[in-house]
């Protein structure tokens, strides 16, 4: 009889774990070649001249281990077991326990109505936005505020009231949704403060009432807009800009196309494909999304900046989709700059916009006089109503010289080719075998350039042999492994006098593979998330 | 690095055990093995902040020097001076890194020193407690005092002393061992016992992940609600009572198991504490190595029971209050210690024998309820919070006037594991001590297979959750 030996058992587990990191199959959601060894994470920071920059980032190290194939499989199985028991993340709740529609619990805050907290939040928001509007006007910006109503408030008829989910520890039943009280207060305040806004509720409700069984405006498993929601919001915003300022609008440039979407929860709660859970059916959806087919007909005559949250970022990983691209498509003679960023709340992108104004002005100044007049500058600010609490105590820094000081880390890219967020309403570069060039502000000091990127591989897009990112600075070339799925970082030492960096993807897909622009929209995206330069004091000669 | 970290059990531990196994195969490699264990411990410890290694050295090297000087001057009165200096040095390090945040709030002029230390050992001006400092400082003090009391031969080889202190399986959170516990084993280095050690490690890991971390999810009912009703207070405080037990017991078993892998036998730290028949009995079963340390080096040093009844009671109160303070720089910890001190005094006055005459279910309930109340104090952030929870338990806010079952519904898997944990506690815990201590326990084939299965499930759960740090890492 074989006696069980714990040594053998543990040795077997460890061996299987490490073998699994090499041989376990990749999944649709995690198609990239996950990094196998841990040690490279310890030495990943190497500059262009091959000089090691000793660095051990524990968070990065832990993330690396999380991304390994065996770790991923174990996590997926664990998540699936928990989901099978009906255990879901605390930040969502399920409509009538039917597992067909999920809501954000944070939506329920604003459903309490005009309680003192939201009264104060609205007051703060109105004051902040009013002040900001007045200051922006002095620089000839025309602000349009787009508050996004909560999914609960749009679909309230389909929910069984009262709901208990407001606080999972204590019983605070919500008898009904009263989010309209907050919206009405906000809009009344904005009106009084002379701020232009659009109220999306009537259009969203009308569309939802048309077919209550379908989520229509919001995705089933998350609170973001569907393609239809994006289209309605863009339509309402451009119509308003046309009505107020006569901005040229042409909806024919935007066409709805079918895409497959893995909802946020699928990324947050990776489930094993081999275990069926109640969530399995709603995490992957087919949606029809507006794509811009705008073709530049002459130089732009006006400029629209978009500060927004994940609602604006939704679908922007497709080359010509998302709220910004839809706006861009509908405004034929307007250039759209998007500062939208997911996951950082309502205020950060506005702060980013404010900090980059001088860059925008510098860029505008380089154009011939007749292209964009100082008066033709518009700013759309999208934020969800549930986030109103963030305005309490917020003061917006506002001065033309509000860039970071020269000796601190600050964004260096002022101009890029081949699609940069500033130019095409994207947060991302596209590096599908095409070169992207970053130009820096001139400075005679050496810099340490930190590039953080995330990659996203379209569904079924095969992985090329040894995909890498290539950096070319002057005579130097550096190749870095393209690891996908999560944020990756490289630090490059840029010598003084160098003002240009070129980068591209090498072998992101097999030679015969599809990539961006293909009919099925199968894409590889490399998004530069943080681009910072630290100046390095050189030793005196 | 912590024991439940994938980096620990898939990278550090296998590499360590393979090298240790190779080095232990030949007696002439023993020196290398000893050095290797110290090096591995320092890597294990300094993984998060390499400066902690420097702090450890700055604490332990002078402690060794003072122990050496105490041993050399045992025949003269100078030894008392060296002993005092050694203890003062150790306690100063402990005060500086564990209590300075608290002291500087009470006396602001200290905030300058605090900010200075926080530059290297903390962030935002506040010192972050270096893990393990409470444990290795106590071990260094115990060695020093035992040398002074001539209970042990001084470890003349520094390597013996270093191997005693610097041993990663119990470095961060104990058990607190004495030099006498391992001196013989250090002299005659024991053979590795991987099978039994890893079985214990797997068992401890399962207790931590499958029970302690699941109970942790429900402590919020009591401790994150401003005015809990009866059901909220009960659910939350019972959850914490079992979280802290399975967490620390699980950790201790893992530490014992890892020590046993290398052949070292550490004393049991727990012996079914929630089956105690009195508070006195509880302290013989809960965190045994700490309570015996407090008894031997604090209570007895204060005079113990040699100076009359009244003095004995005062000594008990002081010992338990300081024992509470050892857990952290907070008044609630001191009050928790005082609570236990008062109960111990009460039992001395009433007579423990009279309590033992009662039927075991009654005495067990008596001890459990008092310990349970103590944990409410221990976990609360303030006295008012503790009283709020107690008020809830006494039903002053209704039975379930605001209780919301949704948290349990949202964590049905965890709730199921908690029920399994309670069943394990009720029916299987005594079986683990059937053969005496945990190290004596011989597991049958079926039990081993059950432990392996639990370990795999725990591994899966660990990967799918963020992980709850061991509670005793913060002490």
Please provide the count of β strands of chain B: 2
Strand order of the largest sheet of chain A: 4-3-9-7-8
Number of helices of chain B: 21
Mean pLDDT of chain A: 75
Q: What would your notes on this structure say?
A:
The complex is a heterodimer of chains A (541) and B (475). By secondary structure, chain A is an alpha/beta fold. Helix content of chain A is 29%, strand content 20%. Chain A has a five-stranded parallel β-sheet, sandwiched between helices. In chain A, helix 5 runs parallel beside helix 7 and helix 9 packs across helix 12. Chain A is globular and about 80 Å long. The termini of chain A are far apart. About 12% of the residues of chain A have low confidence. Chain B has 21 helices and two strands. By secondary structure, chain B is mostly helical. In chain B, helix 4 runs antiparallel to helix 6, helix 7 crosses helix 8 and helix 11 packs across helix 18. Chain B has a two-stranded antiparallel ribbon with strand order 1-2. Chain B starts with 5 loop residues before the first helix and ends in an 11-residue tail after the last helix. Helices cover 69% and strands 1% of the residues of chain B. The model of chain B has no long low-confidence stretch (mean pLDDT 88). At the A-B interface, helix 1, helix 2 and helix 3 of A face helix 1, helix 9, helix 19, helix 20 and helix 21 of B.
């Amino acid at each position: 009889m074989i006696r069980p030996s714990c040594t053998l058992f543990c040795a077997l587990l460890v061996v299987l774990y490490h073998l699994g990191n090499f041989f376990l199959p990749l999944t649709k959601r995690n198609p990239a070649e996950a990094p196998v060894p841990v040690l490279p994470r310890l030495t990943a920071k190497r500059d262009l001249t091959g000089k090691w920059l000793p660095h051990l980032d524990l968070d990065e190290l832990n993330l690396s281990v999380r991304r390994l194939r065996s770790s991923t499989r174990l996590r997926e199985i664990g998540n699936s077991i928990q989901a099978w028991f009906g255990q879901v993340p605390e930040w969502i709740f399920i409509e009538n326990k039917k597992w067909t529609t999920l809501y954000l619990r944070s939506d329920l805050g604003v459903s309490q109505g005009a309680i003192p907290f939201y009264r104060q939040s609205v007051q703060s928001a109105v004051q902040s936005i009013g002040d900001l509007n007045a200051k922006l006007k002095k620089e000839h910006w025309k602000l349009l505020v787009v508050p996004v109503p909560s999914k609960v408030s749009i679909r309230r008829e389909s929910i069984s009231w009262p709901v208990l989910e407001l606080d999972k520890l204590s019983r605070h039943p919500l008898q009904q949704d009263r989010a309209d009280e907050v919206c009405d207060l906000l809009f009344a305040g904005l009106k009084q403060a002379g701020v232009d806004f659009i109220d999306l509720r009537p259009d969203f409700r009308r569309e939802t009432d048309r077919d209550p069984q379908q989520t229509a405006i919001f995705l089933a498993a998350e609170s973001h807009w569907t393609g239809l929601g994006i289209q309605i919001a863009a339509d309402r915003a451009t119509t308003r800009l046309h009505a107020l300022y006569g901005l040229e609008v042409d909806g024919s440039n935007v066409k709805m196309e079918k895409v497959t979407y893995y909802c946020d929860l699928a990324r947050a709660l990776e489930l094993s494909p081999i275990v069926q859970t109640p969530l399995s059916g709603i995490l992957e959806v087919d949606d029809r999304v507006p794509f811009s087919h705008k073709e530049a007909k002459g130089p732009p005559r006006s400029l629209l900046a978009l500060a927004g949250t994940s609602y604006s970022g939704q679908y922007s990983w497709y080359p010509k989709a998302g709220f910004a691209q839809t706006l861009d498509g509908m405004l034929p003679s307007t250039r759209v700059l998007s500062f939208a960023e997911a996951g950082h709340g309502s205020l950060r992108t506005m702060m980013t916009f404010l900090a980059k104004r001088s860059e925008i002005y510098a860029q505008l100044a380089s154009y011939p006089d007749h292209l964009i007049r100082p008066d033709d500058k518009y700013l759309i600010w999208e934020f969800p109503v549930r986030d109103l609490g963030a305005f309490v105590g917020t003061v917006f820094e506002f001065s033309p010289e509000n860039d970071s000081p020269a000796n601190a880390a600050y964004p260096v890219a002022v101009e890029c080719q081949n699609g940069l967020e500033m130019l095409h309403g994207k947060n991302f570069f596209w590096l599908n075998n095409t070169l992207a060039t970053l130009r820096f502000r001139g400075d005679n000091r050496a810099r340490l350039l930190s590039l953080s990127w995330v990659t996203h591989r379209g569904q079924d897009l095969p992985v090329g042999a040894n995909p890498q990112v290539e950096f070319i600075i002057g005579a130097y070339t550096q190749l870095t492994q393209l690891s996908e799925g999560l944020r990756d970082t490289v630090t490059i030492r840029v010598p003084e006098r160098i003002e240009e960096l070129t980068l591209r993807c090498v072998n992101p897909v097999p030679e015969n593979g599809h990539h961006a622009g293909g009919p099925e929209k199968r894409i590889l995206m490399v998004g530069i998330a943080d681009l910072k330069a630290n100046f390095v004091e050189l030793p005196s000669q | 690095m912590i024991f439940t970290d994938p980096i620990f059990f898939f990278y550090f531990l296998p590499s360590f055990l393979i090298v240790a196994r190779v080095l232990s195969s030949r007696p002439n490699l023993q020196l290398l093995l000893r050095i290797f264990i110290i090096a591995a411990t320092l890597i294990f410890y300094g993984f998060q902040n390499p400066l902690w290694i420097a702090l450890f050295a700055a604490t332990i090297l002078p402690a060794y020097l003072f122990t050496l000087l105490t041993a050399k001057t045992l025949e003269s009165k100078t030894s008392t001076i060296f002993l005092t200096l050694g203890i003062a040095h150790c306690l100063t390090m402990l005060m500086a890194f564990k209590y300075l945040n608290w002291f500087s709030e009470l006396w602001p002029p200290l905030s300058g020193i605090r900010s200075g230390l926080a530059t290297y050992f903390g962030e935002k001006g506040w010192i972050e407690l270096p893990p393990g400092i409470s444990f290795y400082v106590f071990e260094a003090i115990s060695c020093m005092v035992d040398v002074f009391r001539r209970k042990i031969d001084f470890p003349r080889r520094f390597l013996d002393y270093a191997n005693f202190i610097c041993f990663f399986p119990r470095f961060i959170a104990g058990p607190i061992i004495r030099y006498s516990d391992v001196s013989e084993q250090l002299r005659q280095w024991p053979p590795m016992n991987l099978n039994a050690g890893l079985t214990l490690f797997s068992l401890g890991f399962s207790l931590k992940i499958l029970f302690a971390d699941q109970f942790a999810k429900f402590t919020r009912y009591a401790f994150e609600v401003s005015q809990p009703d009866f059901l909220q207070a009960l659910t939350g405080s019972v959850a914490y009572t079992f979280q802290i037990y399975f967490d620390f017991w699980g950790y201790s078993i893992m530490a014992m198991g890892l020590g046993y892998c290398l052949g070292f036998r550490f004393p049991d730290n727990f012996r079914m504490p929630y089956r105690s028949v009195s508070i006195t009995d509880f302290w013989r079963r809960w965190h045994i190595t700490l309570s015996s340390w407090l008894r031997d080096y604090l209570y007895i040093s204060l005079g113990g029971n040699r100076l009359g009844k009244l003095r004995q009671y005062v000594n008990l109160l002081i010992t338990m209050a300081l024992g509470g303070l050892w857990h952290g720089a907070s008044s609630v910890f001191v009050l928790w210690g005082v609570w236990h001190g008062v109960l111990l005094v009460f039992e001395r006055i009433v007579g423990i024998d009279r309590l033992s005459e009662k039927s075991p279910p009654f005495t067990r309930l008596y001890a459990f309820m008092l310990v349970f109340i103590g944990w409410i104090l221990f976990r609360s952030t303030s006295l008012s919070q503790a009283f709020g929870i107690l008020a809830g338990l006494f039903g002053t806010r209704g039975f379930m006037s605001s209780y919301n079952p949704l948290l349990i519904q949202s964590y049905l898997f965890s709730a199921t594991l908690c029920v399994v944990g309670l069943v394990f506690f009720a029916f299987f815990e005594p079986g683990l001590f059937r053969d005496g201590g945990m190290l004596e326990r011989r597991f049958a084939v079926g039990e081993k297979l059950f432990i392996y299965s639990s370990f795999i499930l725990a591994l899966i759960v660990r990967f799918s959750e963020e992980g709850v740090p061991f509670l005793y890492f913060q002490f």
